[in-house]
Amino acid sequence: MRTVFYNLIDWFNNKSFSMEGFNQAVLPFKIISGFLSVGLIIIIIYLIFLIRKDIKKYLEMLIESTVQADEPRKVSLEGWQPVMDKLNSNNEDSYKQAVIEADKIFDDLLKRNGYQGEDMGERLKQITQNQLFNLDEVWQAHKLRNRLVHEPNFQLKEHEARRMIEIYQKAFKNLEAI
Predict the structure, then answer these.
(1) Which ranges of the chain does DSSP label H, i.e. alpha helix?
(2) Rounded to two decimals, what is the model's pTM?
(3) Which residue range is the domain that position 158 belongs to?
(4) Is there a single domain that holds both residue 55 and residue 89?
(5) Residue-wise pLDDT tens for the chain (178 aa)?
(6) Phi/psi zone of residue 155: left (φ > 0), alpha (ψ -120 to 50 degrees), beta?
(7) How far apart are CA 112 and CA 175, in angstroms?
(8) Among 41, 68, 95, residue at a domain's last position
């Protein structure tokens, strides 16, 4: 280490500090710093491009969520009257259809509010009791709907259908859809 230091001092003592000698000594440093500067500028431009892209996605998501805030109300109100009409008929098949359609409307509402999942069960798992105070009842109504769909001989009484529709109505009100 000591000899390297002394060699460096000797090198400086032997060099004459003319402008031409200085420029030749500094030229490799200029070339290296030029390449580093170009590389860093490219990296900075790339990072700005990525950040701009993420900001654009975030703003689009924000706008979509703001626009979608009104959509569930319209969809649920438009689709709710046929459910009530079927519930008020004196036909067991209509009662079944009313419960199935109410479940579908509620599932559509969950999708529009940003809940992800392959089916309504997965979306319901993401909801807490604080978000939906009658969550357990909605689970019961959804399970009954599944029985209606998968068990062709399942008997549904009018009072059971009315109870399930009331559960969905409470959930809609809780989520401020109606």
Answers:
(1) 2-14, 19-68, 71-87, 92-112, 120-125, 135-150, 158-174
(2) 0.57
(3) 71-174
(4) no
(5) 567 667 766 666 665 555 566 667 777 888 898 999 999 999 999 888 888 777 777 777 777 766 554 454 444 456 788 989 998 888 888 999 999 999 999 998 888 888 888 999 999 998 888 888 899 999 999 999 999 999 989 898 999 999 999 999 998 888 776 5
(6) beta
(7) 12
(8) 68
Size (the chain), residues? 178
CA 22, distance to chain mean position in Å, is 60
Residues 161 and 118 in one domain: yes
**Cβ(94)–Cβ(86) below 8 Å:** yes
Same domain, residue pair 78 and 166: yes
